[in-house]
Amino acid sequence: MTRLGARVDAALTSPGPWYRLVEVQTLVALVIGWRLLNHEWTTIAQRPSVLTQHVNVMAWYPGSPPAWLLVVLEVVGLAAVALVVARCRTRLAFGVAWGVYVALCAWWGASGKVMHNDVLTVTVAFPLLFASPPTRGETGATVRWGWPPRAALVAMACVYFLTGAQKLHHSGLHWVFSDNMSWVLRQGAVARSADLATFVADHSWLAQSLAGGALALELTAPLWLAIRQTRLAFALATIVMHTSIWWLLGIDYSAWWLTVLAVTVPMSLRADRRLWRSRSRAPELADA
Amino acid sequence: MTTETTTDDDRQRRLARRVTVGTVVVLLLVAATGLEAWPLTAFRLFSTVRTGTSSGFTLVAIAPDGTSAPVLLPQNQVFRSTTHQYADLAHESPQTQHAKVLAWLDAAGIDPADVATVELVRTTRRPDPAGVPQITAQTVVVRVTP
Lengths: 288, 146
Known about the structure:
Number of strands of chain A: 2
Number of strands of chain B: 4
Shape of chain B: elongated
Order of helices and strands of chain B: HEEHHHEE
Structural class of chain A: mainly alpha
Oligomer: heterodimer
Helix content of chain A: 55-70%
Largest sheet of chain B: 4 strands, antiparallel
Number of helices of chain B: 4
Strand order of the largest sheet of chain A: 1-2
Number of helices of chain A: 13
Strand content of chain A: under 5%
């Protein structure tokens, strides 16, 4: 193993405090819960089978699911999120919430277009499925609680890097240094921000700066996320990027920046600092 | 440190490496191959360069008296996204074309009995000297009788 590999391995597998895993898993579960509440899932049942195109994890299910099944799954998913927050059967509950979320999003997106709105949350939550969260009464710092939040950070860094790498692979620097962003804005702007989109599109230096900033942020995500002190700055930058996309183009990437916040905010704290203090465990700070 | 703790730490380190490296390898492989099988995706978000020339498809219902009206689908994401299937409609079997067109008419609230034919129209736009997109070509890609 190279020295860099050994350092990465040591950073991934060193012990971590019990509360960091609880914080990250709880916040990611809350993002899943918010997304479960944020959709009218029964719309899926109204889509005729002939217009349903399954090229996803739910391809095994024929046609469109009935409305009652969608409602039951949503309720089960939300109950599972509540159990994660309550730290009751956390591992099982997190798995159920994730599974329900994946199934519903897969059905929602089976209309012929690849939808990326929820894919970051699904991917970042995946390593947390293998975590063994502390039960009530367990404290201290162990390898068991240290690696899952870091693995979630790695998955997040990889996703952002790939979104940038694909732009470079398919378009090169032309993606930045051309009228690309101007035309994206002119062709995709929503009514509420048409004036602002036109203003940006008409000033090529501004449009190219936006494109360059977005590409740079995506490609350098692994660096921002590797360093504790810069994780919060990355989160703020993604909020600016995703909310500007929503404001100008109407595309909802709120699950992306919420997931970034859910992982980076706790992971930007020093190991001996908690994000929140459990009333029942106030004196246990020194454990970590 | 007890032997039990050491054993658990070693087991957790192996699990951490498997899960983390496995996740990264799968993400990279899927991106490299361009596979799209949600939630596995190549993460091609806005990855192509847009130019002033754009094209898109519109479904148009033609009444028996010759009047035409666009087939407007509900604006929710589930139905709106089915318009991405327009591009493949011409390559579908006649039975599938018929079934899909009936489904789109139904979603748009149009009675098929009031429609003589449905046309899939490809529209190309290019910017004029002032930079405003203008329609430069409209082609009927396929006609389906509902």
